[in-house]
Amino acid sequence: MRIEALELKNYKSFKHLKLTNLPEMVVLVGANGTGKTTLFDVFSFLQDALATNVTKAVQKRGRYKELVTRGCEGESIEIKLDMRNEENQLIQYELKIKPNPLIPSETIIEGEYITQYHEERIVFHFSNNDPKNYSDVLALKSYGYVSEEREVSYGIPSVVNIRQFIESWNRFDFQVDSTRFGLPRLSDEERFLSATGTNLANVILELKKSNPPVYEKIVEKAARLIPGVAKVDVTVTEDERLLLKIQDSAFDRPFYAKHVSEGTMAILAYLVLLNNPNQTGLLTLDEPENLLYPDILWELCEDLQWYAENRGQVFVSTHSPEVLNAVPPESVYLLKKENGTTQISKAMDSVLTQGLIEGGDLLGYLWKQNLLTGLNEVS
């Protein structure tokens, strides 16, 4: 399943945003404070609301008046997703929230809707918009445990699958210190890299045991991208803690993670994240170029594109011309702040940009020359 369209109303800087025909990889570029991270936060908000409830998801971000667009405090916040499943059927999910009129510190669901289409015909519709119902628990959570077998037999859209789709989203925010200085304990079958990469050593060890070809592929790529690297391994100590080791071809003894550069650890984390066959689902990355040598970014973008085509949709924010040069121009979206709210346009919607790209120019170079329309000018 992937997201085909996204519409927001009154979510932080997005007073009204509507993105349609979203590609497999979406690359966001814009000045600081234009809303790139806010867009990613929409995905995290839905995950948090599903894991707990709407009130706690809002409180995690401050209060309702901090989440709602400035000047729209009396209005509802709306999130709408158009998703396309494996059977090419359109599924729409819409959520409207507002403060509880009886308990202002709480946030309630004003409306929640699920609609599934088959060849433009509605085959299922669910709505939860009772004005007397002051609930903050998503229907996706309440009804997400319905038997999948029953749903299939009755031809009802799988609420379980929508829930699992949201739960599978990965917002990766690599924290290098957690991998360099932590000593994670040995645990059973850590197949997925955590949001901050803390369990990098665990996942490498699991891949080495359960999928040697992928492990060898990661080591081979690391050796090609990081000068001197000959081997990547994990040692289990007597108290069952893990030590990540990097073998430099010029020395007999390996370097442990705490003595390895931040850039080396970042490369390893991205290689594991994007080449691990167990890691699937929508992926968001905030400025993956950080800590990396510019020449590496082209191959990183190739891996991101491969992940997007084979494992799950990818949303990336960047300030790097090298990243823009390496990604498909059709995947790039430009963010601009106007009168306190964010506007988004596709880079290739500009006739000028289209002509320059067709003439052989690259988006990153156009950006550096201030030839991309749709961005704030920063002096």
Textual characterization of the structure:
There is one protein chain. This protein has 379 residues and is α/β, with parallel strands linked by helices. The chain folds into 2 domains: 209 residues, Rossmann fold (3-Layer(aba) Sandwich), CATH 3.40.50.300; 110 residues, no CATH class. 33% of the residues lie in helices and 27% in strands. The chain is built from 14 helices and 15 strands. It has a 6-stranded antiparallel beta sheet. Helix 8 crosses helix 9, helix 9 runs antiparallel to helix 10 and helix 10 runs parallel beside helix 11. It is globular, with a radius of gyration of 23 Å.
Secondary-structure map with pairings?
Layout: E1 2-11, E2 14-19, E3 25-29, H1 36-51, H2 54-59, H3 64-67, E4 77-84, E5 90-99, E6 107-118, E7 121-128, H4 139-142, H5 148-154, H6 159-167, E8 170-172, H7 176-180, H8 200-210, H9 212-225, E9 229-236, E10 242-248, E11 255-256, H10 262-275, E12 283-286, H11 297-310, E13 314-318, H12 321-326, E14 332-338, E15 341-346, H13 351-358, H14 363-368
Parallel strand pairs: 3-13, 3-14, 8-12, 12-13
Antiparallel strand pairs: 1-2, 1-4, 4-5, 5-6, 6-7, 9-10, 10-11, 14-15
